[in-house]
């Protein structure tokens, strides 16, 4: 994996990050640190990446478990150390998993597997931060199930 991060100029603290896969994202600092608040802070990007990594795992695991998952959102709240280095000390993941007839034990298992085995980002951050998780299952009755869609098509 490769990436390039380049300071965008002499005034301010904006950086352009480019990934090896060809994507770019702007990062900026807080005004009190010389930034202009034009983009996410680098540590916010770390938190976003961790949420994305874990949500990806949860959806993939539920799909492999033949669950009719329709949506997955993870709300993260984090605390950082007061002194340098200001590492994350606590991170809470709250998952909102939407689907039809989702089994709570399988949602719980998917979250646990992500955080204990598959999500590199949360496992890495777990070395400095206390990680906690919660979830809600939202039944999506607005759309027919895959079985109902296949039956209507016949």
UniProtKB/TrEMBL annotation:
Checking Pfam families in the record gives: OsmC
Q: Which domain of life is it from?
A: Bacteria
| Record Gene3D superfamilies | 2.20.25.10, 3.30.300.20
Q: What is the name listed in the Swiss-Prot or TrEMBL entry for this protein? A: OsmC family protein
Origin species, per record, is: Undibacterium danionis
Database matches in InterPro entries: KH_dom-like_a/b, OsmC/Ohr_fam, OsmC/Ohrsf
């Amino acid at each position: 994996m490769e990436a390039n991060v380049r300071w965008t100029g002499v005034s301010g603290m904006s950086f352009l990050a480019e990934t090896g896969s060809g994507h770019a994202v702007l990062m900026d600092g807080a005004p009190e640190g010389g930034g202009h608040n034009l983009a996410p802070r680098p540590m916010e990007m770390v938190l976003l990446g961790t949420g994305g990594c874990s949500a990806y795992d949860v959806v993939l695991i539920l799909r492999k478990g033949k669950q009719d998952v329709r949506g997955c959102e993870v709300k993260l709240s984090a605390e950082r150390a007061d002194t340098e280095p200001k590492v994350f000390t606590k991170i809470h993941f709250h998952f909102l998993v939407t689907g039809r007839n989702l089994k709570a034990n399988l949602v719980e298992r998917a979250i646990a597997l992500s955080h204990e085995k598959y999500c590199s980002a949360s496992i890495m951050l777990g070395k400095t931060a206390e990680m906690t998780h919660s979830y809600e299952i939202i039944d999506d009755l607005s759309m027919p199930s895959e079985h109902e869609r296949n039956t209507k098509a016949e």
